[in-house]
Write the structure tokens for this entry.
Amino acid sequence: MTARWIRVVVGGLVGAVIIAALYFPILKRRVKQTAKLQPQSEEQARRELTQPLAANPSEPRVKAKLFWASNSDDAALTPVTVDLPLSADPVLRSKQVLNTLLAGPVDPELRTLPPDAVLLAFYLLQDGTAIADFSEALATSIPSGIVSEQLAVDSITHTLAENVPQIMRLKILIHGQEVETLAGHLDLTGAFTVNHRAAQAAIVPADAAQ
Amino acid sequence: MLLDVTNGGMNFAQGVMLPGHRRVLCALVLLFVALPCGSAQAPAQAPPPLPNNPSSPVSRPVPAAGGAFSSSSPAQMPQTRTGLNIVVLDPAHGGTDTGARGTGGIRESEIVLGFAEKVRRALEMQGFQVVQTRLGNENPSFDDRSALANAQTGAVFVSLHVSSTGLPGTARVYVNSDLPLGREANGLIPWDRAQAPFLGLSRKLGDLVQGNLAQQFRGSPGDAQSSAIRQLRTTAAPAIAVEISSVSVDNRQDLDRMAPGVAEAIARGVAAFRPSYVVAAVPGAVR
């Protein structure tokens, strides 16, 4: 082999190394992107699709009343007024207030819903019946008992009653399914009346709220 | 079929039907049941069997509320008598369903079984016959527990619970929240709403028991609360749920100390309710 061929071969190898060095970061980036696209569980996929709606700053800010546990009576609710940009659309508005309710009050002791529960979907039928579909955590993480289960449902129905007047009844689903009870006591086979009068009656002086 | 329609409902355990209602029954049977209509002297049949498949969507007949609330004319009014003899005691949960669990390992299903024993003795001292939905660590279904009560005549149903939350040392009584009566065209009450005709009586029983509990345990409310409790909905009898607070106590003995007071309050409440619970007594009725 002549010296000329040796130079050609060495030059080719050097070129290949340079090309490989340039391509390697690109390849690494692609591998990372592919890893991110690994199959997700159904629950993960649903959660990503149903992320809490970001508040739209262009929407008018409204003094929304949300119902969490009372700090003076552990079997009662207290309304807390929160300034929120709320949509005029009843379904979007319902999602906004329920996601805020799920996020919880400042004092976590006054929560009525488990912190890991997620609102998966919300529908409103023409007859005023709303359907709220929550993740399984609502049923599995809530403390079992009549008091705690009743407070959970009341906080949802009172909050909807106060902020979304179009809703007359509420049906609660867990992960898209009708279940017999929330956590062994409260009956979820029927629809709850979203009682506007009850929401008003539950209101206590604002200084009692946190 | 033995049907008493004098109080607007059906009572399968009251004996022969009054002659004045024969035609009504025949029409119902011919139109809706398609069974041959026998003579008025036909022998009484036994109460309907307990449901074998409670999840079936088919409506099941359940006894209607007592004749004390009948709107019939005086001539049609059957004789009445107090009907409360049996208390169906329901220690909730059981088996793999432990119910509420405290951080100290306290399990609702175990606590309520101990409470049931005390309540049973207190009720028997008052002269009641007590039937329990479970005696050990079994977990009958909601419908099986209701069916046990629905098969009795003149019974009340008391379900025992311990909460996860709430002020420790207090007790609350719950009655089922309003249910649409929804009687079907054939006069039968759907199994799913069996409690509907008894809501008024349940409220009365609940308030009496809650009043006694409030005397025993400071901080307990004075009146019974309403809640959509699954267990009560399918129970065709005056029915209440008693929930003690709570499994969050550090020491199980704190709960055990409540048992005698809870038992006494329930027994007194049920005894005070006894005169209010009147069921139709048809002459010649077969029990």
